[in-house]
Amino acid sequence: MSVKPWRSVLYVPGDKPRAIEKARTLRADAVILDLEDAVAPEHKDAARGNVKEALAWRWPGPLLVRVNGLGTPWEYADREMALLAGVDGLVLPKVEDAGTVRDLHLRVPLWAMIETPLGVLRAPEIAAVPGVAGLIVGTNDLARALRTRPHPGRLPLLHALSAVVLAARAHGKLPLDAVFNDVRDPEGFARECEQGRTLGFAGKTVIHPDQVEPANAAFGVTDVEADEARALLAAWEQARAEGRSVATYLGALVEQMHVEEARERLAIWEETRPEPR
């Protein structure tokens, strides 16, 4: 069993060549080269050229491109460049309609950004579209559209966050949590990562290199958790070998869903553990 982890997904502005080069040296599970919000209109063309060049490099993990949205002057040029250059996936901002996504007929996985109230309400339909790999929450635009007030625990957004997780998981797609804006607040970032994992997100989008390793830790599997998963599986296998219909681990009943969860944890641990020196 192999599980591709998406613990940390790093946004890198397309108009920052040095930042793009540095991103290759980081341990982010995936990188999004951004042509949209992070790039001013007068720099769009130069950024597209930078991204095209970067797509020819060898990257340690999946390389995605966030293209400019539908109806913008840059949408066709962005998509054509990325598709011809061999991108691993496209990130489409402000997705609100499943039919529009379906009509794109892309040949690569699409990551749909849910950033508006309508996007949240239609998230189940969007997640159901073939070719959609996952949903990415964009809370900056969502909070503005909802007219919420800032809250350290994201209380006004909890319903929307859970709705996106529910929609993605219902259709076997991956939900990725939104960025944390204050790169000077590592404690706040850690709390939000823990909240995101508790809500069911597979990983977190990040905007600074210093956020990569904390996200990896928060959404990863520790050695202790891997040992616990092995022990649970061993109890399950022993019960089956002895012909028992019931298995227990640490006094709790073990069911098939616990076995599947343990196997998934071990697969992520295998994929992400450091290479032996």
From TrEMBL:
| Record-level GO BP terms | oxaloacetate metabolic process
Alphabetized UniProt keyword annotations? Lyase, Magnesium, Metal-binding
* Pfam families attached to this UniProt entry: HpcH_HpaI
Claim: Phosphoprotein is one of the keywords in the record: no
EC no. given is: 4.1.3.34
Keyword Magnesium set for record? yes
Q: Which cofactor does it need?
A: Mg(2+)
Domain of life of the native organism:
Bacteria
Q: Which GO-annotated molecular functions does the record name?
A: citryl-CoA lyase activity; magnesium ion binding
Annotated HpcH/HpaI aldolase/citrate lyase domain ranges read 7-209
The residues that hold Mg(2+) are E115, D141
Q: What InterPro entries does the annotation carry?
A: Aldolase/citrate-lyase_domain (IPR005000), Citrate_lyase_beta/mcl1/mcl2 (IPR011206), Pyrv/PenolPyrv_kinase-like_dom (IPR015813), Pyrv_kinase-like_dom_sf (IPR040442)
Give residues annotated as binding substrate: R66, E115
Protein name as catalogued: Citrate lyase subunit beta/citryl-CoA lyase
